[in-house]
Each structure stands twice: as structure tokens, then as C-alpha cells.
Amino acid sequence: MNKPLSSVAAIRGEEHWTDKGSDVRLFLWNKHGGDPSGPAGRILFVHGSSMASQPTFDLQVPGRADSSVMDFFAARGYDTWCVDMEGYGRSTKTRDNNAPIAYGADDCFAAAAYIQKLRGKRPLLVYGISSGALRAALFAQRHPGMVARLALDAMVWTGEGSPTLAERSKRLPEFRAKNRRPIDRKFVRSIFERDHPGTADDT
User: Fold this and answer.
1) CA-to-CA distance for 116 and 121, rounded, in angstroms?
2) How many CA atoms lie within 13 A of 170 on its CB side?
3) pTM of the full predicted structure?
């Protein structure tokens, strides 16, 4: 791993927006430590189904500098990006759909195309977590020339062995009846231990 190049205080965060088609606006968040054209590379982080990109990849916890993976890599010279999928965060939520993986791959392409137009046509380092891994994988399969490396974390392929997905399967009729899943504080806290209780730091 490269040694830190920038302090967290020197890392800059910038909002960006791009279009997917004529009716969807996608929000992108970028953090870098000064020179985004440096040799370390550009990372695109792709979130899962439970929450949007900034709370997933740029979580700010007082006294815990490494709670933001974007800050961690930006301090080491990477140009880091994340994007809110359609229906999440600050991106368009007006279309009625259930956030299919194919739509997410389209979102990844729109984000990557924007980044390359802004920074130059350098292939991206792409990281996807949970259902974001499926979105990132499909994007990479469709556009291999845009991806230098692909990391798939907690990828939900068959769901075999996942207690969380076993519980979700019991609620399929509810999920199919409406395209939005209500989220409260209890749900957010459950994300960190739902498959393996006791693995999160509650202090």
C-alpha cells in the first residue's frame, strides 16, 4: 500500500452530477488529496441496496479518521469517486422501478463515462459491495476497457449461506408489492451484524 500523501484535512470533497438518458440525474461524490491526475489511480465505489454512496464510503465519525474509505485512499494518492444509483441518495427517484441490477450497471457506465470525460480515458479501479458488486460486475462485463481492476465484496450471487437473504426471502410478496423498502434506525444498525452477530464495534 502506498504511504499517505495527504492529511485528512487536505482532502477535498466535490459534488458532481451527470445524466443517464433524458430523465435521470445521478449524483457523484469525489475526494482527492490535491492532484487527481496522480499515478495511484482512480477508484469508483459502488454501493449496495441498503443505503446510498456517501454514508457507505465516506462515513465521517469524530475521532475515527479511517471510518471513510474514500479518505483512506485519497490520503494515499487515489482519486476516489462514488455514485448514488438511481433511486438512492441524491439521484433521481421519480421513476417507478425496483432498482434492477441492469439499471445499476447503466448507472456505473454513466458515472465512469463522466469521470473519464473529466479526468481522461484511464481505466478505473472499481469496487462494489453486496448488490453493488453485482452492478459493478455487470458493468465490467459490458465495458471491460473501462475497468483496470475489479473488486467484488460480499457479492450476493446465489445467496446460499446468507442468513440475511434467507430472512428476506420470507418477505418476497411484500417486496414485490412495492418498490420502496422502508428504513429506520434499527435497520441501519442491523446492517453491521445481521449475518454475523458480534462483529461490529458498538463503542
Assistant:
1) 5
2) 4
3) 0.87
